[in-house]
Amino acid sequence: MKSKSIKDILTNNAIYIVLLLLFVTIIIIDPSFLSLKNAGFILSQSATRMIFACAIAGPIVLGGTDLSAGRLIGLSGLITASLLQAPDYIARVFPNLPQLPIWLPIILAMLICALFSLIHGYLVAKLKVAPFIASLGMQLVVYGLMSVYFDAVSDSAPIGVLDARFTGFAQNGITIFGFRFQFIILYAVIIVALVWFIWNKTKLGKNMFAIGGNIEAATVSGVNIVVNMLAIYVLAGLLYGFGGALEVARTGSATNALGQGYELDAIASCVVGGVSMRGGIGTIKGIITGVLLFQVISYGLVYIQVNPYLVYFIKGLIILIAVVIDTKKYIKKK
Amino acid sequence: MMTQLKVQNPDSYLLEMNGISKSFPGVKALDNVHLKVRPHTVHALMGENGAGKSTLMKCLFGIYQHDEGEIIFNNEKIHFRNPRQALDNGVSMVHQELNQVQERSVMENIWLGRFPMKGIVVDRKKMYNDTKKIFDDLSIDIDPNALVGSLSVSQRQMVEIAKAVSSNAKIIVFDEPTSSLTEVEVKHLFRIIDRLRNDGCGIIYISHKLEEILEISDEVTVLRDGKWVYTGSSKDLDIDKLITLIVGRELTNRFPSRKSKPSDEIILRVENLAGEYMPTVVDASFELRKGEILGVAGLMGSRRTETIETLFGLRKRKGGVIKLKGKQIENNNPREAISNGFALLTEERRETGIFPTLDITFNSIIANIDNYTNKFGILNEKKIAEDTKWVIDTLSVKTPGSKTKIQNLSGGNQQKVIMGRWLLTEPTIMLLDEPTRGIDVGAKYDIYELIIECAEKGNAIIFISSEMPELLGISDRIMVMSNGRVAGIVDAKTTTQEELLRLASKYL
Fold first, then answer.
1. pLDDT for res B29
2. What residues of chain B lie within 8 A of the CB of A222, using their CB?
3. In the predicted structure, residue B9 carries a pLDDT above the cut 60
4. Measuring CA to CA, which residue among B412, B410, B371, B375 is closest to residue B388?
5. Is residue B26's pLDDT more than 70?
6. In Å, how far from its chain's centre is CA B130?
7. How far is residue B303 from each of residues A98, A114, A275, B22, B274, measured CA to CA in Å?
8. Given a cut of 90, is residue B507 above it in pLDDT?
9. Contact A4 B25 (CB under 8 A)
10. Distance between CA B63 and CA B55 in Å, rounded?
């Protein structure tokens, strides 16, 4: 419709340009990075992150944030790991527990996470607590509870040796020409499709954008603010729970440190993917792009043996650039 | 009209904007536009929304950089980089939306960014005295130490004017200064503008209110579709000529005519409506007939907005009875009100009307979303697209397409989309709060037509307006509110502006 100046194109896509430059640098330093094997690794690693990013994007589009996400992911991991250890393993945390069908602990963990997110949502939607501080409080509450649980059931020793059906649920897959397609990728695709559908094809999705876009106008238009916000938070909780279970099945063990800082990676991916921290703006396509780009760069930098501390620095820089661009777009629109 | 101009050389201009052109990707917003302002004059800048008035002003203040043309100020070619630089050089603007720091005092707002200093500390005494002196000069009665947040809109506007004066501004731009002022406050504003004119300032006055323009201005420049159309003395103009210049076509009537009369069937009865939290409606009783347009008049602070927002369930109701077609209803929240067939077009379009970052489609269908969803909450996209097209076509919304973000439309077109949003809900009772505020003449006429069409279809309409002519022009009856109470309900055909004003001050 409108032709844009080169400068606009450059500013609007600055983040992708930076990431592309990094990508090219990585390939120049070590061309072996470009392999189907690495692509498989990166996709497997991205799978749960996509789920987390899609989950946390809901509260962000509502105009808030969720710092408790990482701990809820960890909580789900701890619950499923403790209930799904290999039945022939002697040092199980629950030695008398019969072998459970794997879906049972996963559903249980999802419901528990949803309950915490519901409480978080209630604080924000009904009691009007600032999302930042509400989720910070929830983060500590969840961490405290999960650590007590961890300490009680396993004396703070990592919970490992998981049921092969459980680890296989995530890790099994098929290999084509060195490209390993783990089933975990499939689950991620299903979740992403589901969230895309909710965002774009349902009333809940429209109401979410309405609340994030202009909460006053949404009220006047008859949107039930509290119910819709709670629904979005519960959805996020369910996804943290499912993703957390997948994460522990993928890595094979859990401690109370599981999930620490995951919310920051998820938020960063959203921001890089164009979700506005002011609410009301965001696309699933952008979020997935954000997750993949972030993962390619993180993995790539480690692959070419960049000092891990420096990787933090670079990731931080990427986030800052993304936020500056987001803000710049906003200012222009005024 | 002020005619004692003390111009030494009548041909000299204080500000000349010559041949200004400005393009945005895909659209030429200004095409060879001229604006020449003499000292000791009020120069009205007129045009429909989207005619280029704001863009021209933004070029003057350096918010936009113009592509072609030159700006000459005080016989010097200038090119401001930003509004601050303009202010430092004596070009200042009193904005339509007041950008003030609510939690700070009046004088701090005036001197913000250029506090008088005594060493490293702010010289509050000098700041106070300087402020007081400007206020006395302009006969503004505000305490320089008062918090800006505690002032009324008109007082805050006075503070903005004082700020312009404090920087020795030679050119002062007023952008829709009277849109939220009462008649008394407008008179005071005009006295201040007179004063500034006598002091030799050149005033650029932007307004949609035609009577006002003819009263206050000496010269008029009209823009249309980004082009210069007319510059001349306002003595040679009357309202009809002005409208023709602005719209580019003859508008024989400013208000569309009514074909049918409202029926006698009472559709809504409100008894002793009162709100919970002050300021709010104290006691309002009225009835509304099928097909009727009930205008609501009142001064600022008469709580007309609060009344209909209480009726709509947006504000908590303390007492009173609402009966729709004889049946008592509650309207505890907007959702309930909408399902009872109410619609509310709010006064603050930007704050409570539009979803700025979302597209026309979204903005059209959001209030009617239940009608597009099946029992699983999944949307019917085909129906959504059809209804959006209906809104764009029926209300003749000027937009490149349904995917355009609403924030990229002009105010009038935004208002049409919101009207469309409510029409899609097929309301029986429409509550319209200042539906034509900040909208140009052409779009206003479209809105009047829509309102009348809705009434003729048998809807009932409550229409709040602060513009007497339109209130008298399209209402059947007019309810006058005063200090949260109904002061009287009169027949629009037989009443006078004097009677309305008298009623409006009944409970003050």
1. 83
2. 334-335, 337-339, 367
3. no
4. B371
5. no
6. 32
7. 69, 44, 39, 43, 11
8. no
9. yes
10. 9
From the candidate CATH numbers 2.40.160, 1.10.3470, 2.60.120, 3.40.30, the one assigned to the domain spanning A2-333 = 1.10.3470
Q: Which of A201, A203, A221 sits opposite B367 (nearest CB)?
A: A221
* Location of structure tokens 């987001």: A326
> What DSSP assignment string belongs to B190-204?
HHHHHHHHHTT-EEE
Say whether pLDDT at B445 is over 60. Answer: yes
Question: ∠B470-B471-B474 over CA atoms, to 5°?
Answer: 75
pLDDT tens digits, A291-304: 998 888 888 998 99
> Phi, psi at residue B109, to the nearest 5°?
-65, -35
Nearest residue, CB atoms, B25 vs list A2, A204, A209: A2
Hey, is the C-beta of A4 within 8 angstroms of any chain B C-beta? yes
- Are A224 and A77 in contact, with CB atoms under 8 Å apart? no
B50: left (phi > 0), else alpha (psi -120 to 50), else beta? left
Query: Residue A210: its chain B contacts at CB < 8 A?
Result: 355, 358, 362, 366
pLDDT value of residue A225: 95
Q: What angle do CA B399, B405, B409 make, to 5 degrees?
A: 45
Tokens (6 digits) for A302? 């480690």
Give ∠ CA B359-B361-B363 in degrees, rounded to 5: 70
- Mean pLDDT score across all residues of chain A: 91
Residue count of chain A: 334
What distance in Å separates the CA atoms of residue A242 and residue A251, rounded to the nearest whole number? 15
Q: What is the mean pLDDT of residues B121-135?
A: 91
Interchain pair A209, B355: CB under 8 A: yes
Choose between B422 and B182: higher pLDDT: B422
Query: What residue ranges do the domains of chain A occupy?
Result: 2-333
Question: Has residue B376 got a pLDDT over 50?
Answer: yes
Chain A residues lying within 8 Å of B354, measured CB to CB = 214, 217
**The residue to which tokens 């406050």 are assigned:** B185
CA distance A221 to chain B (A): 5
For residues A294 and A289, give the distance between their C-alpha atoms in angstroms, rounded to a whole number. 8
Mean pLDDT of chain B: 88
Q: How confident is the model at residue A180 (pLDDT cuts 50, 70, 90)?
A: confident
Give the C-alpha separation, B486 to B285, whole Å: 7
Chain A environment of B345 (Cβ under 8 Å): none
B88-103 confidence digits (pLDDT tens): 888 988 876 667 888 8
pLDDT (mean) for A53-61: 97
Instruction: Note if the pTM is more than 0.90.
Output: no
Q: Give B19-68 as a DSSP string.
A: EEEEEETTEEEEEEEEEEE-TTEEEEEE--TTSSHHHHHHHHTTSS--SE
Please answer yes or no on whether B314 and A220 come within 8 Å at the CB atom: yes
Residues of A in contact with B352 (CB under 8 A): 214, 216-217, 219-220
Note the pLDDT of residue A2: 43
pLDDT of residue A333: 45
Q: How far apart are CA B154 and CA B156, in angstroms?
A: 5
A126 and chain B in contact, CB less than 8 A: no
pLDDT of the residue at A1: 38
